[in-house]
Amino acid sequence: MPKRPSLFLHLLLSVGVALALVGGSAAQGVPLEKATKDAVVEQVGKLVLNNCFVPGVDFSKWPEFLDQNKAAIDKASTDSELVEAINSKLSAYFGVSHIVLVTPKAAKARIERKTVGIGVQVQLEEGGLRVMNVFPDTPASEAGLQMGDLIMEADGKKLTTTTGMMGDEGTKVEIRVKGGDGKVKAYKLVRRKYSNIREDTLKMANPTTAVMTVHTFDTAYNPNKIDELFEKAKDVPNLIVDLRGNGGGVVLNMLDFLGHVLPSGSGFGTFVDRSAVRRYGDVFPSKPADIKEIAAWMKRPLMPRRGKTTYKGNIAVLVNGGTGSAAEITAQALKELKGAPVLGTKSAGAVLVSVMAQLPEGWVLQYPMMDYVSVQGVRLEANGVDVDIEAPTPKLNETDFAVEKATALLRRIELRKERSGDGRIMVL
């Protein structure tokens, strides 16, 4: 049987579907020597050809990708231009998430959890950059930008990638933003350094329902803080786990969290790598390499971390388009194994195991090497977590209908259990 994957592997969206906008060097970016660019592109090609793996995806087409985008890559003279030339096409060309070139500055920012910018986490979509989160004490929060706003232009240019928003500390950017009311406003902001760490919280929605907000499973995830929050929540009958805007992170952190909400020994899904597909083909040469069948054949599901105090009450989960990767796996695991209803909007559908490979001069390539299938046979990549009840992500000072609906739903479940002793959780 294939070996269980190592737990240092990453499930990252910090530079993929949802990301904090980090600095380049003004709008032009940091000057890039041709020798460095050539070395970076050459190493990216080697990794894509030799290391990238997603079942059914032909990464041998890298030379064709390079030919199609040669003009833009050759023209790139700064880090921002090279990132745009490659990243604006790379993921779409191969049809997968978690494949992205990262500048040295952005790679450092992820480790330090500090960055330079206007202070928003965004999702790239048609028409611009959708604001998924606004960090406190930043130019964006002070200007009044809110979750759900669409940043359409920066310095007069339409946004088809994130690089147009990047810049150094103290540089100015003028953006045009469409709000939830459909009105377009212009903002002149000055980029500055800020911390992109947000503290996870537990708040009471009512006397019997708590809301636990978990912002990330990446390097800012604090297991001790999560232990503390679950200790406070242990006697609360109902718990809403808010994963909206949580772009994922490190596998080990995901397993730590799931240790609090799934019983020990609860297999919740399987990573499928190149070796598993090859071995399956050796055993069943006449069968097509169906990823769901391969996952079931492996019989090596992921398990939550042992030794955690497991929450015993009713659970609901909140997701949105900024919920990605490890957070999607978490939501799906709770849905399948705890019967937890999922509320909000469809998640990102970006669920591949990836690693961060060092390139010349501090550059990094994040690339995929495993796919994921849930214990009930759901492939989340390109599909996302289906919600049971639709509810929009609220803007600042707006009513949070997802929390309201989840609270009401959990209360009905609580009352039903009190009356009948039936512990099953169902969507009503």
Helix percentage:
25-40%
Which term fits the overall shape? globular
Estimated structural class:
alpha+beta
What is the number of helical segments per DSSP (H or I, 4+ residues)? 12
Distance between the termini: 41 Å
| Unreliable residue runs | 1-27, 423-428
Rg, Å, rounded: 22 Å
Brief summary of the model shown:
The chain is an alpha+beta fold and 428 residues long. The chain is built from twelve helices and 21 strands. It has helices spanning 34-50, 62-68, 70-75, 79-94, 104-112, 139-143, 223-233, 251-258, 274-283, 291-298, 326-337, 401-420, and strands at residues 10-11, 18-20, 100-102, 114-117, 120-125, 128-134, 150-154, 157-158, 172-178, 184-190, 192-195, 201-206, 209-213, 238-242, 249-250, 269-273, 314-319, 342-344, 353-358, 364-374, 389-390.
Description:
The chain has 428 residues and is of the alpha+beta class. It is 30% helix and 24% strand. It contains 12 helices and 21 strands. The strands form 5 sheets. Strands 2, 5, 6, 7, 8, 9 and 10 form a 7-stranded antiparallel sheet that branches. It has a 6-stranded mixed sheet with strand order 12-13-14-17-18-21, with helices on both faces. Strands 3, 16, 19 and 20 form a 4-stranded antiparallel sheet that branches. The longest helix has 20 residues. The protein is globular, with a radius of gyration of 22 Å. It starts with 9 loop residues before the first strand and ends in an 8-residue tail after the last helix.
